Amino acid sequence: MYERMLDKQNKPAFDDMAAYCGKGMELFIRINEWLSDTCGTVQEITFPYGNKYGWAVAHRKKKKLICNVFAENGAFTVMIRLSNAQFHLVYDQVEKETQECIDNKYPCGDGGWIHYRVAGEAHFCDIQKLLEMKCLS
Measured between alpha carbons, how far is residue 64 from residues 58, 81, 92, 104, 118 in Å? Predict the structure, then answer.
């Protein structure tokens, strides 16, 4: 479960990525539409970091990366970097599971990266809060 699309030689279409998410398909479509409509991002399907990461939808505003949304079997994962101040602003508004993800972020400068798996509506609401922080900056 949660395997990613790792065949670098065959670039998937957005619809293929959504279908791959299975029960997470609706949420995958919603988050990508929300990012484009609300945050004004431009989408690009990429194979960004290495063979273990797989295909993702990169969202950018101008040239600034907002996040990567990785299609997974049964869910999807959003990779996002925020400052410590941004994490602090939303920390008390998110679920305990999300707080643990923030607590275990990969440090980078004054903040860090999180890989946040969205497998249900509560996760979706929390990642929206985190992405709003990123889009406002």
Answer: 10, 11, 27, 24, 23
Listed by start position, the domains of the chain span 12-134
Residue 111 DSSP SS3: strand
Tokens 């994962």, residue located: 77
pLDDT tens, residue by residue, 66-77: 999 999 999 999
Statement: the pTM of the whole predicted model exceeds 0.70: yes
Separate counts of helices (H) and strands (E) for the chain:
5, 6
State pLDDT tens for residues 73-126. 999 999 999 999 999 999 999 999 999 999 999 999 999 999 999 999 999 999
Give dist(CA 137, CA 135) in Å, integer. Answer: 6
CA distance 81 to 90: 14
Compute the Cα dihedral for 80, 27, 42, 14 and give only its sign: positive
Residue with tokens 């903040």: 111
12-134 to CATH, choices 3.40.50, 3.90.1150, 1.20.120, 3.20.170: 3.90.1150
